[in-house]
Specification:
Chain lengths: ~475, ~675
């Protein structure tokens, strides 16, 4: 009997799960509330910035779902889960049966407590934009395009987290004078410490974006955004990027255990009902919710195996959070503020960099890199693979990379590898022509020609720096 | 009187002149277009093998009980081999005997070897070491373009591009004269990108050098294509007119944003963007892959991913742009075209194609029904040796399996389990040393034959000196065996064999029927299929290139707590392949193997430059001096493969399409060797 799997949500976790279920003996239905085929949500700020075409966001087209026998229903909202009947009810009253239900409902943007943000009729103030969906992005993009026709357009971004900084940079690159308001005492407060936040604020100011930290937006007026310190920031646009919370209303109403997210076990099944699973932003595993794609995808891979009837369990994850914003360099590996371990840290406010490694048992268990990502590729590998480092390595990883200094060539150093000619043999020649004739140096790959030119005729004049 | 000929080593097949009757002298042949007189030290010293005391001049038979060798006459040796073949086939059927060839053999030998297997022995069990060279690129080329010719244009076209992307090639060391093209390209204002976990001498000549985690070149290609799509930099007209499959490929790269690529490849997102921007902003882009990208269990998909980049930019088939593979072995190209590959007949025909079988059987004068079907790929064949349903006898030509096979300890055990191992070589290679019969053959400059270089240019290696008495050509060995097995006749004069090869290849994808020795002499080599391919159409029936959506899977063996480092292998300038030739040339330095590692790792295990280190994988262990350099990724170590040892470590995971073993990455552990005393 083919199991019916119903997936509520059509975001990045859902599409990954569908990929993992291709060819499995299950009948999959995806109920997605957005109107677009699943797309790459995390690139929306790049679309806003203009560096990524909106057409190229689609992760899987409707045709792909059809080709793989997966029913994709867009613009479809689920209002109720009937656990007894094992059915979900859609907004139009239609009921769909399931053997397994997957909640991939994601997160919904948090509305900060700002007076005047929501009007009496429940709609947002016309200057205010959330930024979570492609629809949000398109609306904001249209507003920006229109504003750019007016003199000195201004925007305020409420929320100085990863998304807020990405949006702020995107608006700024587009030519909108942008300011960032963050309630905590430094930027990116949930990922990095005050020193790193300070480096970022300085970078943003250098790029023309003013930053207000430890300040809350309290009121939306016709003049702009009023802060709790009394100042009013005049603006044409307000973008809300103050984070999100797991979308758990359906699960709650169905009586599933919900704390911050839908509480799941290592099979990503609800601890209340093992026929119902949850993954991605809406799920809570071992008291952690995520908000990032990589763990959601790891969960999707595990859940696909579970739904195929294979042994698989989810054992938590390692996350790497990267800021995607032109001119700002941030990578946060794991919980750089709270992870237990020894901290090796270098802050250089003069050059604008802050790097912190948290090391436990020789392993990098968390890290924050701001303003200098020169070794991000290596540090990420060491973190992901749990490589045990020697005692000197964490410190050395934060020093400038060792480069072999150009040394004076000793006579026995090989200069022309193709013909096997030493510096001494070249020095003993009077001219390049003689050298070629006598030693065949430069006649292979030709790479040593410059060095040969400098060395010929320098016999006795040792310690000529070459390089 | 100088003889114009070609170097005995790599696929560049540099032209050179030889003078002298006994020990030839090498001099430049400036008129030959590929290298224009340039040679590396291997080429200059190529004659150093002449007069070597290690040269074999008499057939040798090994007594298994005592291990002692005794010289026998050619007739005795060939009779013994023929008897062994008959015994094996009587017991196990036609497939009881296997043939193993090499990518260094001339076209004539490769062709005759395939004919020997199919028409004289009737065995399907033939493959060759080229399977371990560029088979992943070959498989990808056939799937994407309908045809595999390493470079579908002359090498010199490299100078005409604007951005040259070298994926896993260290040509400045492996084929030094080719590096001149990089310099000329850059003098013209073009730029060079090198992708290699080590910053090699080739990377030192690059404008952008990226050092990915071994086994992640595919993810990098996906990330580059993602950015090209995002920037609207793909050539939609070209894709619509000349390709199929673009929609799937486009969708498949949507999840490969730069930061994800960074986490997978260890290349920073900024560098991925820099590469994509370079490609997006250049009128002509050329992508060339080599073993670094190809010798993986995901090698053929990796090549397909880079081909997709070249196709998406609308480059394939344009002058100064496109995709190519830098073939490795001297006759890597020709060796894969004329029938020593398990699934092929001459002319790059498929052995399971009835029309091809009928045509080739006609040329050979045998019944098409009598030809066997496809056999095992090289590694699968070696794994089967001596097993219940595998061959019990094997003939080896032009290959030193004990050094060059992956998981070599295991492979050596398989070779030792044979009832009969016959090796044709001109020195006592490590493989010959465990054979039952060793047949001394002629070498380069003692015989004539054609090679097909990395550009698909057929060149003529001409006989310059008289071979030592006692040595015979592989062609004579093959014909001698055929007579004893009462098969159809085999020609032994190279020009005659070449003409037959031409007839057998006529009408096939690699059609040599119009090429003659005289044309090769007159024209500085002859390209099969024409100088430049794909200008107006690809070789699939619909004329379009096919794009395949491929996924990153990564190396088969990932680092873990016990084996925390990546091991990669490769070549050094002064040596060639298994070193059977170059290690015996006195003018070439032979410092032995080494383990290249980063100072961070050296500090971690407490070893200094030059001190011995032990390196282990799940398959074996070797020790060698540490070479501590800052030019390698700190999570990766490198060992050259010219000596026994490196391939005891390597992984035998195979690419599902090409059957290429994963030479280029496995998980390893390092430790300092404590010297007693």
């Amino acid at each position: 009997m083919t199991e019916r799997v119903v997936i509520v949500g059509g975001g990045m976790a859902a599409v990954r799960l569908c990929e993992g279920l291709v060819g499995a003996d299950v009948a999959v239905t995806v109920l997605a509330d957005e109107r677009h085929a699943p797309y790459n949500r995390i690139l929306l700020s790049a679309v806003l910035e203009g560096t990524h075409s909106a057409d190229a966001l689609t992760l899987r087209s409707a045709a792909w779902f059809e080709e793989h026998g997966i029913e994709l229903r867009l613009d479809t909202r689920v209002v109720e889960i009937d656990r007894t009947a094992r059915e979900v009810e859609l907004v139009d009253g239609e009921r769909l049966g399931f053997d397994r239900l997957v909640l991939a409902t994601g997160a919904i943007p948090t509305l900060p407590p700002i007076r005047g943000l929501v009007r009496r009729d429940g709609t947002l103030h016309p200057k205010v934009h959330p930024f979570r969906s492609l629809e949000d992005c398109r609306r904001l993009d249209a507003s920006v395009t229109a504003l750019l026709e007016t003199p000195s357009p201004r925007a305020v971004v409420v929320g100085g987290g990863l998304l807020g900084l990405q949006v702020a940079r995107a608006l700024s690159v587009r030519g909108v004078l942008t300011e960032v308001v963050e309630g905590a005492d430094h930027l990116l407060a949930s990922q990095v410490g005050p020193a790193a936040g300070g480096v970022l604020a300085r970078d943003l100011r250098r790029l023309g974006t003013e930053v207000y930290t430890g300040a809350r937006a309290v009121r939306m007026t016709d003049d702009g955004v009023q802060l709790d310190n009394g100042a009013t920031l005049p603006t044409d646009l307000v973008v809300l990027t103050a984070g999100g919370r797991p979308s758990t209303a359906l699960a709650r109403r169905a009586g599933l255990m919900v704390r911050r997210g839908v509480v799941v076990d290592s099979a990503l099944a609800s601890v209340t009902d093992d026929r119902i699973h949850a993954l991605g932003d809406c799920a809570e595993h071992r008291r952690r919710t995520t908000g990032f794609v990589p763990p959601a995808w790891e969960q999707a891979e595990v859940l696909a195996q579970v739904l195929r009837g294979q042994e698989a369990s989810y054992d938590g994850h390692r996350n790497v959070a990267r800021l995607r914003a032109t001119g700002l360099d941030v990578a946060v590996l794991g919980d750089a503020q709270t992870a237990a371990g020894e901290v090796v840290e270098v802050t250089n406010p003069i050059t604008g960099s802050h790097r912190r490694l948290v090391v436990h048992g020789g392993r990098i268990v968390a890290a924050a890199l701001v303003g200098d990502l020169s070794r991000v590729g290596l540090i990420t590998q060491l973190y992901d693979r749990g490589t045990i480092l020697g005692p000197d390595e964490p410190g050395q990883l934060l020093l400038p990379e060792a480069v072999d200094a150009p040394a004076a060539l000793p006579d026995d150093a090989e200069v022309c590898a193709c013909a096997g000619v030493t510096a001494g043999a070249i020095r003993a020649c009077d001219s390049v022509a003689q050298c070629v004739d006598r030693t065949r140096a430069t006649t292979g790959c030709g790479g040593c020609a410059d060095v040969v030119r400098r060395l010929v005729g320098s016999a006795g004049v040792h310690r000529v720096p070459v390089g | 009187m100088a003889t114009e000929t070609h170097c005995p080593y790599c696929s560049l097949q540099c032209g050179m002149r030889l003078t002298g009757r006994r020990t030839p002298e090498v001099s430049a042949w400036e008129e030959f277009p590929v290298n224009q007189g340039a040679l590396c030290r291997k080429g200059w010293s190529a004659a150093g093998l002449y007069g070597s005391r290690e040269r074999l001049t008499s057939p040798l038979v090994r007594d298994r009980a005592t291990g002692e060798w005794s010289a026998v006459s050619w007739d005795e040796a060939l009779d013994m081999v023929a008897a062994g073949i008959r015994a094996a086939q009587a017991e196990r059927g036609p497939d009881g005997v296997a043939v193993f060839g090499g990518g260094g053999l001339t076209n004539e030998k490769a062709y005759s070897l395939g004919k020997l297997a199919r028409a004289a022995l009737g065995t399907s069990q033939i493959d060759y070491n080229g399977r371990w060279c560029m088979s992943s690129a070959a498989s990808a080329g056939i799937r994407a373009f309908g045809l595999d010719r390493g470079l579908p244009f002359p090498l010199a076209d490299v100078e005409e591009t604007d951005v040259l992307v070298l994926v896993g090639s260290n040509l400045a060391e492996t084929m030094p004269p080719a590096a001149r093209h990089l310099d000329r390209l850059r003098e013209r204002g073009g730029r060079v990108v090198v992708i290699d976990p080590r910053r090699t001498p080739t990377a030192d000549r690059a404008d952008l050098a990226l050092q990915p985690v071994p086994g992640t070149d595919l993810a990098l290609a996906l990330g580059v294509l993602h950015l090209l799509v995002a920037a609207g930099a793909v050539d939609e007209d070209y894709l619509a007119d000349r390709t199929t499959g673009w929609a799937d490929v486009k969708e498949s790269v949507a999840p490969w944003w730069p930061e994800r690529v960074e986490r997978t490849t260890g290349i920073s997102a900024a560098e991925v963007r820099e590469l994509a921007a370079m490609l997006a902003g250049s009128p002509r882009v050329m992508v060339l892959t080599a073993r670094g990208a190809e010798q993986h269990s995901t090698g053929s998909d990796t090549v397909l991913a880079w081909i997709n980049v070249a196709l998406a930019l609308g480059m394939v088939g344009t002058r100064g742009g496109g995709y190519g593979c830098l073939t490795g072995q001297g006759n890597g190209q020709g060796g894969r075209e004329h029938g020593q590959k398990a699934d092929q007949l001459p002319g790059y025909r498929r052995i399971d194609d009835p029309v091809a079988r009928a045509h080739v059987a006609g040329v050979w004068g045998v019944d098409p029904e009598s030809l066997p079907g496809p056999g095992r790929s090289a590694y699968e064949l070696l794994e089967a040796l001596g097993t219940d349903d595998g061959p019990s006898a094997m003939l080896v030509f032009g290959s030193n399996i004990v050094v060059s096979a992956p998981n070599a300890t295991h492979v050596t055990q398989r070779l030792e389990s044979l009832d009969l191992l016959v090796v044709c070589d001109f020195v006592m290679s490590e493989t010959a040393a465990i054979a039952d019969v060793v047949l001394p053959v002629t070498q380069w400059a003692e015989e004539t034959g054609t090679m097909t270089n990395l550009e698909g240019r057929v060149v003529l290696r001409q006989k310059a000196i008289t071979p030592p008495s006692g040595a015979r050509s592989d062609l004579d060995v093959i014909a001698g065996l055929a007579v004893r097995l009462s098969s159809v006749p085999f020609a032994t004069a190279p020009e005659e064999v070449f003409a037959e090869l031409g007839r057998a290849s006529a009408g096939g994808p690699a059609d040599y029927s119009s090429i003659t020795y005289d044309r090769i002499r007159d024209e500085g080599g002859v390209f099969w299929g024409g100088e430049r391919l794909f200008g107006s159409s690809f070789a699939h029936p619909d004329g379009r290139a096919r794009m395949y959506a491929v996924e990153h899977r990564g190396a088969a063996e990932q680092p873990c707590a016990d084996y925390p480092l990546h091991l990669t292998t490769g070549r050094v300038l002064a040596q060639y392949q298994s070193g059977a030739q170059t290690r015996r040339v006195r003018a070439l330095p032979d410092d032995g193997p080494f383990v290249e590692l980063h100072p961070l790792v050296a500090g971690r295990i407490g070893v200094a430059h030059g001190e011995p280190v032990s390196i282990s994988t799940r398959r074996g262990t070797m020790s060698a001096p540490a070479r501590v350099v800052t030019t390698i990724r700190p999570d990766t170590v490198f060992v050259p493969f010219h000596w026994v040892g490196a391939n005891r470590l390597t992984n035998d995971a195979l690419d599902p399409a090409s059957k290429m073993p994963e030479f280029k990455v496995c998980a390893a552990r390092l430790s300092a060797v404590v010297v007693a005393g």
